[in-house]
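hey team, just a heads up i'm posting the complex here instead of the shared drive bc the drive is being weird again. everything in one block, sequence lines first with there labels, then the predicted structure for the whole assembly after. its two chains so it's a bit long, scroll down
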Amino acid sequence: SQQGEEDPQALSIQEGENATMNCSYKTSINNLQWYRQNSGRGLVHLILIRSNEREKHSGRLRVTLDTSKKSSSLLITASRAADTASYFCATDHPTGANNLFFGTGTRLTVIP
Amino acid sequence: DTGVSQNPRHKITKRGQNVTFRCDPISEHNRLYWYRQTLGQGPEFLTYFQNEAQLEKSRLLSDRFSAERPKGSFSTLEIQRTEQGDSAMYLCASSPIAQGRAKNIQYFGAGTRLSVL
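-- predicted structure starts here --
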């Protein structure tokens, strides 16, 4: 299976702190995405980073990608209670297959 | 609402019954995907349509599962002779073809939660 793994599985922080989540995957990729899922809801795309990029920013989000280590990290700065959700990394397949391979997710709880 | 719509939101059925779920993608999206998600796990790919053509199927999609997208718009996923192991959230996603090969940003519906008793 190409499904990746997120680390940690669960993270609990105080509002205003930064949250860092890590993702590892198994094969080469074209790009890596991060998605967010509120409890019982669908996934929402947050940010995409291409395989030739090392870092990308979007608002309070910062994503890094290390293709040599097959790993990525998502940093959420100045967290808010509304950031409480599960976060998943998703990779594609270098052959161009259209499905995404999702990691196991990190459950983030931001305490007000 | 112009997002991906899934119906029903919840389905409770008895083992052995057939169930059908519907997905209405974002109207201009050519690509449609079905995923299954069990508790505490990430979504797992089931099948993919480009317009009305079913182009990819996962090995997870057993003979009891069938998906259609007859007019290239909405899609249905049917599970025949349901088993308790089919209990999961079934997610539908869509994406436009115009993103290009290097991108595959998908837009998800809220899912259908299936409970097989």
